[in-house]
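Lab channel / #folding
Pinned by the channel admin:
"Please post every new chain as: sequence first, then the structure tokens as a reply. Keep commentary short and put observations after the output so the thread stays searchable."

First post following the new format, from NK:
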Amino acid sequence: MLDDFAIRAALAGLGVALAAAPLGCFVVWRRMAYFGDATSHAALLGVALALATELPIFAGVLAVALAMALIVGGLSDRQLSTDTLLGVLAHAALAFGLVAVSLLPGQRVDLSAYLFGEILAVSAGDLAVIWIGALAAVALLVWRWQALLTATLNPDLATASGGHPRREQLILTLALALTVAVALKVVGALLIAAMLIVPAASARPFARTPEMMAVIAALFGAVAAFGGLAVSFSYDTPTGPSIVSVAALIFIGSSLLSPMLRAR
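Reply from TO:
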């Protein structure tokens, strides 16, 4: 019989996987990998804000992740190329977050828990927050799925048909911030982007429609979460990195199978 903490860890991993997978598809389609990095690395600034103001960690991380995503969106039309801008902001956010946490007076903060996750320490309250945030992110995507898809594949067509690509970008930004906030406890700030990108990239060769890709990505994300937990329990390895390692192995397998699938 599994212990309560193992069940909570498995449910937390599943909640993050279900939220990150469909969102990760849009990250892959829009080539926004660095966008995910910049937002997730800003999570440490949110931790510092929450600890300094005695707010819940989720609230601080959500506020800063959303602010970073909006800043990135606002600056992306400037002279710097998008990848350069995102690279600067991603690493700057991580560095400022590390410095801010270290300067907190009277606080002894275990940075590894925030950098790599602490899924085995998820409480019932954490689990509720993770699932509420994950379901909210999924609900946003389901609600705006067709509009988001049109704005992603052809912004000009979206505009011509009366859509608002900028609004859809903001909705995607909010979903990303929610996912970053709920995933911090599970895989940590350094690995959140991997859970967005790797399952979605693994699903791509198997999918014939965008909806199928989102479903397969969610399945791969869940397998990675459960597989990483099993590896962690069996070999006493860090759980967050183990989850991402399993996701990476799934991607390698998907890449090896891809030529055979194309030949059929």
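NK: The domain at 4-263 is CATH 1.10.3470.10 (ABC transporter involved in vitamin B12 uptake, BtuC).
TO: also worth noting, The CA atoms of residues 80 and 86 lie 10 Å apart.
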